[in-house]
Amino acid sequence: MSDLEKIIREIIAGEGPIPLESFMNYALAHPAHGYYMTRDPLGAAGDFTTAPEISQIFGELIGLWSAQLWTAMGAPNPLRLIELGPGRGVLMQDFLRAARVVAPFFDALDLHMVETSPVLAGAQRKRLENDGVPVAWHRSLETVPEGPAIVVANEFFDALPVRHYVKTPAGWCERLVGLDAHGHFAFTASPIPEDSIRGKAEEGCILEIGAVAQRIARALAERLANQGGAALIIDYGHLETGLGETLQALKGHAFADPLRDPGAADVTAHVDFAALARAARAGGVQTFGPVPQGEFLLRLGVVERTEALMRKASPRQSAELEAALVRLVSTQSEVELTAGKISGMGGLFKVLALVQHGLPQPAGFAEEPTPE
Ligand SMILES: C[S@@+](CC[C@H](N)C(=O)[O-])C[C@H]1O[C@@H](n2cnc3c(N)ncnc32)[C@H](O)[C@@H]1O
Predict the structure, then answer these.
(1) For residues 30 and 53, what is the distance between their CA atoms, to the nearest angstrom?
(2) CB of 86 closer than 6 A to ligand 1?
C-alpha cells in the first residue's frame, strides 16, 4: 500500500468518507505524494501526450494568435503572458519562437508560469532559460503582478478536482469516497440530501460539478475585466451542462480505476465548457466559442504551416508532420495512416476565449460572442 493510500485511509477512518473533490485533490496535489508533485507524467514514457508535445505548430500558432490580440489591445508594454499548467514548457518554447517574428510583441513579454508541480517547474526552467524573456513562477494566479495579460491554458482545467452529486431515494446527495467491506476505496453518498439541486432525474443519476475550475475561470475573468486582456482555454470537454459523469484515470496511456492507487495515475474529468463560460461572463468578460480544436487550428493556418515545414523536411519528417496534423485536427476517433492508427483530437478538444469587453473577435472564432 502506498504512503498516500495510508494517509487517505487514516483520514477516512478519523473523519468518515470524504468528498470526491478532496480525494482527487490528495491524489493529484498532495504536497509529498500527489501525482503531479512526484513525476513528469507527459510523453511516450509517461501517462499521456498533449497537443504541444505532438507538434511544434500548436504553440507557434498560439504565439501568433496572441501577437495579433496584443495589437488589438493597443500593444501594452509590459504584457503579462501567463500560462496555467505549463507541463514541460514545450508550448511556451514554441510560442516564443513564433513571437520573435513580431519583435515589439516579443520585447513586451513578461512571462509568468503558474505551476504547482516542482518537477514540471524544473523542466520548464531548464527549457526556457535561454529564450530571452523575463520569467517567474507562481503556485496560483493570485501572485502574478497586475497589468494587461494574455493567458494560455492547455489541458489545465481538466486536471482540477470535481464534485459529484448522486440522486438517491432521499434526494440529491454528495458522492463521497469511503472504504468498502474489503477495505478498498469505494463511492458512497452523504447522508444529508443537497436541497439546493433541483430538477428531475432518475435514481442513480450523477451530476458532475467542476467547482474549482469555475472559481478559477471567474477569478481569471475578473482580472481580465479590470486590467485588460484575454485568455485562451483549450481542453477536452462538452458544450452543454448535463447529467452524467466523466471521471477518468490514465496510467501508461491506458484507462485505469480512478479510486485505485491514488497518486499513481492521472485522475481527470472532462471540462464543462458551458459552466466555465458562464462563470467567466459572470466575472465580466465576453466569451467566444467553444469551437472544436480542429476548426480553430485550421482557421489559424495549421495546414499552411505544416506544408511550409514539409518543404524542408525529409520523407520521414514529412510523414511525422502529416500524422501530427491529422492527430490535432481530425474529428475521428480512429484514423488509419501508413504510420499506424491515430485518434483525432480535433472534435473532442475545444477552444474557448475569454476577452475583455471592447476588444474585437479574436482569430480562430467564426461566430459572435456568446450572449449573456
Ligand atoms: C495535463 S497537464 C498539461 C500540461 C501542458 N499544458 C501541456 O499541454 O502539455 C496539467 C498541468 O497543470 C499543472 N497543474 C495541475 N493542477 C494545477 C494547479 N492547481 N495549479 C497550477 N498548475 C496545475 C500540472 O502540473 C501540469 O503542468
Answers:
(1) 26
(2) yes
